[in-house]
Amino acid sequence: MPPRFSIPALIGTALCLLLLCACAVWAAPSATAPHLTVQLVVPPTQIYSGQNFSAGLYFKLDRGWHVYWVNAGDSGEPPSVKWTLPPGVTAGPLQFPAPKRLPLGPLMDFGYDNEVLFPIAMHVAPDFKPSGPDTTLAAKVNWLVCREVCIPGKAQLSVDRAALAQPPAVDSVNADDAQLLERFKDRLPQPLPAGDSAKFRATANGFELSIQTGHEEKSAAFFPFDQSVLTNAAAQPVTPLKDGVSIALTKDENLRTAPDQLNGVLALDNGRAYEIHARPGVLASASVETSNSLVRIVVLAFIGGVILNLMPCVFPVLFIKGLALVQSSGEERRKLRMHGVVYTLGILVSFWVIVGALLALRGAGHNLGWGFQFQSPTFDALIAMLLFFLGLSLAGQFEIGLTLTSAGSSLAVKSGYTGSFFTGVLAVIVATPCTAPFMGAAIGYALSNSPMVGFAVFTALALGLAAPYLLLTLNPAWTRLLPRPGAWMEILKQAVSIPIFATVIWLVWVFTQTAGVSALVNLLAAFLLLAIAGWILGHWPAKAGSTIAAASVLVLAVALPVMAVRKGPERFDLAVVGMKRARWEPFTPELVAKYRSQGRPVFIDFTASWCLSCQVNERVVLNREDVQKRLQNSGVALLRADWTRHDETIAQTLASLGRNGVPTYALYPADPQAPPVLLPEVLTPDAVFQALDGIKPVSARATTGL
After folding, report:
1. Would you tell me how many other CB atoms lie within 10 Å of the CB of residue 79?
2. What pTM does this model have?
3. Which fold has domain 574-693?
4. pLDDT tens sequence across 612-661
5. How far apart are CA 579 and CA 582, in angstroms?
6. Residue 504: helix, strand or coil by DSSP?
């Protein structure tokens, strides 16, 4: 007959088992939890009076999961511990090793993956009295472990150690705990050595942190102790100095006044880390190195401006200016030179207006970049109408006179100095959709530094754009190579309208991308009204009545596309169609993080419909069969960041790459800790192949679905 148990006996047995389980958990030095194992590390096997020793809290994490530093970054919280210790035994705070930057979508966390040990200083008082042969060191530990999701955890850990009233003749240690503590002992940040120094100065977007270590540093990262001082996710461009390093830091958007100190941890190569408390000021070596960097960037900007003359978006204006140069080749040298100077002044003023607007808008919290005005469909429509009206005049429909038509488009073709000035303005307007080689890095540098640096870089860019025509006018003897004025000039003038109308077609396409097909009908109707206005001016030139009638038609023409844009019609997104055909996916930071967590590299095409360089690169390089095949075989995820209309996420991602315009091409390795590789603005198949050669091959499982 089986034994019989009463209900009270069963309940008592269950309570005893639960108590035993609870005691077992409390007595355990380690615990396994979701995605990690945590262990209390206590090397000494004996606790005695007057003793000082180091303990530690060790975390072993699953792949891709992390715990947090003392400043967790954009989200999270660091581990914490609450001790239960015998009288006379005290524990210091957790000590945090130098962390890593852990990107998570558009955010940035500071913490640790794989494994980490937090050291703890322990002290036993001289009057320590053992209450028995053994004593227990117990800790209640809390943590937050995260990947795409975060899971809070806790455990109660403890170790038993022999308790002695007097120090033993020989200290005894637990070998495993001692080895674990030894392996991590050099990972704690150290005080900045005597003789080294750290200073910072305020910049337009944040701070320049300069650290003097006595020798050149190739890499560095700064982790602030204080929250809400820096934008955690922003890139930290590093400039090696002869005796240290300089780091560009982006301030938090809500920070209104510069702090008295920048407190944090500086992580250098070879695992070195220092705790720094930087005061305002500039190291002498940093100022010299910054000056050298500025000179290099200014030179690059000038070269980029010169090359910008060769970009297809500037060709129509060069036709106009070339025609004006032929017409003025017979003028005296002084006047010819003045035309060049005034043309250059038009370019300079336009660039200064653009950089002033960019810096002002960025100061107000907007994240804008080169060519930002083409993200406005209203601007696209007005420029298209301006060039269309100009093309009608060049084609011979009407002559530019001293009437209403002398404003707007006519300013660029007038024969006097006004025409030279506004030709420079028009050159800048149509040049902004392009980013020539060397321009990307220069513009990014300009907009991430002080206003003075920004104006210096943009001035060099403007001078580069103006240089070819300016040099020709400053050397009048070269104009002898040009043909003599004659009847052929009227034919040439009409021929110049062809590239003007070609540019209008492109602007219409850009307008359609930003405003939609419904708005396109209004823009085409506006072109019809412009043609009517031109016919009126051509049939009754220089008449008050015709001028008023033409002005009325022009006002109606401008109103049509503007009203259509305000209605916000549904957009016909040709870019999406292209992405489907070319197997490109729309860019999101979450998608980048997802693919990299799966072990796949990511190639991002930062583009815009209004960027002619982007369209050329896509059609000539990215859509080539051999390039597409190589991308597919490499297992690279293809993402397209379409900046045709302003997108703050794309703007922030560009800023984190040190760029402020398109085209930009970035290849993110599969390793989330590896920095992205930037490809040149003028893309070639070899540039793509070389970038792909530098990444590790992807497993077949990771490429599934490409």
Report:
1. 24
2. 0.47
3. Glutaredoxin (3.40.30)
4. 677 778 888 888 888 888 888 888 999 999 887 777 788 888 877 877 77
5. 5
6. helix
